[in-house]
Amino acid sequence: MRLGQREITALPASHTVPAIGQRIDSGAASLVFTGDTGPDDDLWEAINAIGNLRYLIIETAFCERDRDMAAVSRHLCPSLLAGELARLSVPAEVFMTHLKPGDRAVTMSQATGLARRFLPKALRERQVSEFCATHHTRITLPQDRR
């Protein structure tokens, strides 16, 4: 599918119900959003074939305490995330999404420890993402309002 200068491509996902990920390609850079998925060979084959990958947004729905639930429901937890990211062979900035509100801090702490080489960051409320065909993709984080 095309949206102006951007091409949007469905990517495979492994979930308990039919699901897909999305690649948005501006020509200058690509952003991948995995959507709900557990470990998936086909997804990583598709991601690693993207020569202009800039951003990877990947769900990490559970903390380590709920690893069994993550596996059964085909979601990720920090150790599964680390295992999946180890399959990433192209450079990308990694953002996590779908974190459970009550477990957000512990999940981020666990993911940062287990997947430290990828420096995963959590997407945040009101985060703005710009994606232009003529410029590099940029994800802007809102300022903390403490």
Could you explain the architecture of this structure?
About 25% of the residues lie in helices and about 25% in strands. The protein has about 150 residues and is of the alpha/beta class. The chain has a single domain (about 1-140), classed as Metallo-beta-lactamase, Chain A (4-Layer Sandwich), CATH 3.60.15.10. Helix 3 runs parallel beside helix 4 (about 105-115). Residues about 140-145 have low confidence and may be disordered.
Structure, briefly:
The protein is α/β, with parallel strands linked by helices. The chain has helices at 41-48, 67-72, 78-85, 104-114, and strands at 2-3, 6-12, 20-25, 30-33, 53-59, 93-97, 121-122, 128-130, 138-140.
CA-CA gap between termini = 41 Å
What string, H for helix and E for strand, traces the elements in order? Answer: EEEEHEHHEHEEE
Secondary structural class: alpha/beta
* Record field, number of beta strands: 9
Q: What is the assigned CATH homologous superfamily?
A: Ribonuclease Z/Hydroxyacylglutathione hydrolase-like
- What is the CATH-assigned architecture? 4-Layer Sandwich
